[in-house]
Write a structure and sequence with these properties.
about 120 residues; alpha+beta; Nuclear Transport Factor 2, Chain: A; six-stranded mixed sheet; 3 helices; 6 strands; about 30% helix
Length: about 120
């Protein structure tokens, strides 16, 4: 259990989380897709339903309507559970509509770098 809250790993995950947020703000589809584990076991759950596997996640990103994506984050929490595994969670408010939501990501270090292996996004009605 000594690996939990390992500061250096949390800093790495936070840097990836921040890069993901920047790619989201820019709607950089290639970067957004690249953050996810390129495997059929990758999962992204969201208000519109689940996406199962990297191919479905990539297709969603390519075809996504992107209005009202600018957002401010709050309650960002990064937790490292080992040197190669951790989570990132936050709450957010969309700047255009004011709608609120939550997001969680499970990050795993892979040979190619940190990747999201599972994500969940919710948005209040």
């Amino acid at each position: 259990m000594e690996e939990v809250d390992r500061a250096s790993t949390e800093a790495e995950i936070r840097a990836e989380f921040d890069a993901y947020e920047a790619a989201l703000a820019a709607n950089d589809v290639a970067r957004l897709t690249g953050f996810f584990w390129e495997d059929p076991r990758a999962v992204r759950l969201a208000p519109g339903g689940g996406l199962y596997g990297h191919a479905e996640i990539a297709a969603f990103r390519r075809n996504r309507d992107v209005p009202d994506t600018a957002r401010e984050l709050s309650e960002v929490r990064i937790t490292a559970f080992s040197a190669d595994f951790g989570t990132a969670t936050c709450e957010y408010r969309r700047l255009g509509s004011g709608r609120r939501g939550r997001q969680s990501q499970v990050w795993m270090r892979r040979p190619e770098g940190w990747r999201i292996v599972s994500a969940h996004v919710s948005l209040d009605p």
